[in-house]
Every structure is written in C-alpha cells, then in structure tokens.
User: Fold these one by one.
Assistant:
Number 1:
Amino acid sequence: MSYSAVVDALGVAIAVRHPVLVWGTPGAGKSSAVKAVASRATLECQVVNVAVREPADFLGVPKDRGDTTVYSPPAWARAIVEAGGGIVFFDDIDSATPAVQAALLQVVLERRSGDLYLGDDVAMVGAANDLEHSAGGWDLAPSLANRFCHLDWEIDPMVVADGIAEGFESPPAPKLDSWLEAEAACRQLVGRFLRRRPELVSQPPGPEVRSVKGWPSPRAWEAAARLWGAAVAAEVGEETVYLLVSGAVGPGGAEELLSWVENDDLADPEVLLAAPDSFPIIGRADRVYAQLGALTAALASNNTPERWAAAWVVVGRVVERFPDVAATAARLLARSRPEGAAPPPQLAQLADILDAAGLRQPGDGIGAHRS
C-alpha cells in the first residue's frame, strides 16, 4: 500500500474520531505523522507513553471521600478535556502489560479516564512496533485490538528524503461534507453483505494468533461502515477505502465485502433516492452505469418530482469521474420529467456534456432549461 493512502486513512479515522492504531518499525515516523495531523488541524495533542505507565494512569488514582471512593483522572486526561478535545496519542502500546491493556480498554471503550468523561471530540490514536521489531513487548489482547482501526505504516523513501532536506509537510485534513449520509448508505451495503455471509459476522482470532489486529465482530463491522462512509465523503481513493475497512475487520472480510460490492451487487436504489448525497462512487464505470440503470428503473416505478430531483443529485455526483455514464443517465431522466418538477441545477452542466458526446436529441427537454 502507498504511503499517501495510509496517511489519508489516518486522517479520515482521526477526523471521525474513530480509534486508530498505527503499526510499523521503530523510527518510521509514526509519532511525527500523528503530531503533524494534530498541528495541521490545530488540535491539542497529548502524548502518553504507555510503556512507562501504570493502570492508575488510565483508571485514575483512587481517593477516599467519606463513604465513597473517587478516581482522580491523570494530567493528560484533564488537559485534553480542558482543551475541548483533540488527539490522545498512546505511544508504544505493544509495551503495555496485560493490566495496563485492561485499563486502556476502559478509556477506548467508554471514553472515560478515572471519573472524567473525555468527550466525543477526542481522537484516540495509538502506535505499536511490529512483532518482529518489538523489544520485550506483549501480545495485544483481542478485546483491545477489536476497538481500533489498524494501519500498517509505510515508509516512502522519497518523502523521507524530501522531508529531511526541506522539512516534512503536514498532511491536509480531509473534508467530510455529508459523511453521515454516506455512512448510512455504507451501512446498508454492509448489512446486505452480512445477510449473505452470516458466518463472517464474528470470527475471533484463535489463541495461536500472536499479532492481533482487526478481526470481524459486530462492533468491527459497524466501525467498517462508519469509516467507509467517511472515506467516500472525503473522496479518497479505493486504496484508502480498503485500508480503513480492512483495518477494522481484517483483510479477509474487507476483500470479500468490497469484491461483493464491486462485482456482485448494487446499492439499494431506494436508499440512494432517499439520501442522494450518500451515493458511494466506487469501482469501474460499468458498475456505476449499472447502478444508475437500477436507479432510473426504480424511479420509473414511482416518479415524483422529489424522487426525480434526487436522481439528478446522484447523476450530478457522477459527472466529474464518469461524464459519459452521467450523460446517458441524464438523457433518460430528462425524458421522464414528471409534471410539476422544477428544472434541476445539474441540467446546465450536463447539457454541455451531452452535446460533446452527441447524445442530446430533440425531445430530450434539456435545451430549454439551459441558463
């Protein structure tokens, strides 16, 4: 996987505040990348070196208050809350003892340290050394691993060379417009996939697996849908989509899911008509063409002005990447304009594409709508 795809995946996971764990060799720049993301987004970044911490550094220090015991939060937790959110970077997680891992599990799961709630605007990022490079480390407990999206950190020699010579650039923060709508569409796809492959819903790793990373569970599949939707909204490449989904459920589950979407099935057209901004433009032109064909067929069975306008939004999202596919669908939509439907704003842009493709003909009803 490319360095840029891993950086994009890290940025997306942080943007939606999903816990992410970066694996790589010592000195590969994992910590620097996380700090650079925080700096670019002007986020508070608290670094917690797990290797030198005790369980109380996560669970809090118990103090008697009369008849009750309270757990005083550590300094890093107070600082991140006082800042109103940001990134908590747990470095050297592979050095955490089982007792520390159990304490860290509460922080990641409940977003709570001691008696202090960290809040929803806190991104939790961890770093770990690969098993063969971990000096005296501990295996990661499956329960803790299942709460992270796991990314294998890649080193790009040219990026390192340029960074040393000219300074390392901070990666840009992804734009996540309408990502909740995209997540809803991806949840539908994941749900339909698991109905066909129910045996993949939960596959805990066996005791023989040492370096535990992402594995299929209901929690992990939900995380995969969330991260997938965020990746679609951020308009990152397919490589980044794969990294995020496989980081949650493991490579096997990710490959089956994305292959199924690519080759064997389509998104529910009714879902797209209800949330047109969520259309995941993933894969080849022929798949997008088939998806738009299903969309126009669903529209024909119940063609209202609202549904017709929603279909135009979907076509408008396809224009930049697959203009020819969008032009063909636009011609069909223009001919099926229901009574009372206002001209959609996408018509002016698509009329030019239809002209260039030689697809606009008398009776399409497009020329009169151009501004």
Number 2:
Amino acid sequence: MSSRQASIKRDTRETQITVSLDLDGVGKGHFETGVPFLEHMLDQVARHGLFDLDVRASGDLAVDAHHTVEDTGIVLGQAFAEALGDKRGIARYGHAYVPLDEALSRVVIDFSGRPGLEYRVEYSRARIGDFDVDLVREFFQGFVNAARATLHIDNLHGINSHHIAETIFKAFGRAARMAVALDARVGESVPSTKGRL
C-alpha cells in the first residue's frame, strides 16, 4: 500500500469538505460536491494524474459555488502537502501541454514550498452551464496556497470555454503527476540545494 496518502477534513460555517488522496493510485475518482462541472474537472485531475481521489463537499450553494470550489482547492492542496511529506525523492517539477480540439493549455508546477500562481487564461464566455469561469482561478489559488506550490497556467489557444477549462485541469493532472513522481536518481535526497522544500 502506498504511504503517500492523505485524508484531510475542513469544516467551516460555509463548507464541509473531506478529501482523500493517494499519489500512487490508478486514477480512480469519487466526487460529491453539488457542483457538477467541478466534479467533471476533478475527474480529469484524477484520471490524467493517476491519483486516487475522493472529494466530498457540502457548501453554501444557495449563495453560489464560490466557497465550495475555492475550499475544495484548499483541501486538495493540503492533501498534496501531507501526502508529499518532506518531498524526499520526488522530481519536484512537472509540466504538460494538453489539447482538446481547438484549445491548448500549458501547466507548469513546482512543489517549491512557496505558493505562487500565474494564471493567464481568457474565456469566450463567463459561464459554462451554471459554472462561473472565475472560479477556476479561485480553485487553483486555493490549491497553491495550501500545497505551497508554484503554478503557471497558460491557455495558448481556445474558443470554447469548456474546452479551455478542461485542457487546464487535464494538464494540471499530468504536470502534478510528473512532479510528484519518485526519481530513483534523487534517492532519499530533497531536490533542492537548500536541503529542504
């Protein structure tokens, strides 16, 4: 059984969220958030990252989906941080380009110990069904803050907003998969000249 696992619970007046993560999974996902588009995107992360991911969220959706989406990003980031531990032996950096029809996105991640998000994405419309596209950035901002990761997200081409968002989440999954992979040449060392991340 993988030791690179985490289960995190966050309980606030706005949301109640539990995330279980296995970095060395096979891409199995289970999602109950009340936000169907978010669940579709989380499924992309699990499948393309080969993470086993279980996300259960209950939030103040009568207001809107903002708190549920943002807090899910936070808890997912916490789960990555816990599962990675001191980050010994990981590749640390990951990147991916993912196309979907006319859309193409690039995601680059560094589990650097320093939170930072560079997000360069323009959507052709403000909503994908009932989902506010601004929440994609909020999700990833929550993630980097909690995971203490540096994340660059660039949409290079795209017309269809669904395609744009989907390429971002798929590329994020693949980039994260590369970054958390164990590198035999790194061994038990931490991939930093500082000796810690």
Number 3:
Amino acid sequence: MDVTDNPGEGRYDVTLDGKLAGSTFYHDHNGIRSFTHTEINPAYEGHGLGSQLIRAALDDTRTRALAVLPFCPFVRAFIEKHPEYVDLVPEPQRARFQLADETSSG
C-alpha cells in the first residue's frame, strides 16, 4: 500500500500493488486544506484502505502546517474517532463539524 499526494489534481491517492484503490480530494486556501470527498474503489472496500489513506493525508497535512476543514463525511468521522487529529481543525470551526474540543473541560 502506498499513499501519494498529487497536488496538481488536488488529491491523495492510495494504491495497492500498483493499482489505484482510492482518493481523497482537497483544496488549499490561505493555510487551510479543505477535504471535500473520499472515494474507495468498491473492489477495495472493507480493507481499511480508506482509514489508512486519511491518516496519511492528515499526517502529511500536519507536516505542512496546514489547518483542516473536514467537509468530507469520511474525513470528519475519522477525526472524530481519532481525537489526536482534532487539533488540525481550527478551534472556531470544530462545532461546525460537530467535533469535540479536546482541550475543553466541559
């Protein structure tokens, strides 16, 4: 499995044995990366490739010091299940995506 960023296409691709298995699409604007859609080829569904794709994309986004807006429901759900990524979403935007602020006490 390999995940690559294709900035000219505005997407990260996951390949398995050299075959495209899926992509997550984004666009960047003013230091924010908006994830808009994720697709996994039906032949590869249920193998965890989507989660691995999103993890790699978010990790790469973090290294680029970009904030994240998870418009894609799959990306939003991944962040919800993995609170270590909530900090990528700007604090004022977390309620918009129904993401708990991990630093708030209640």
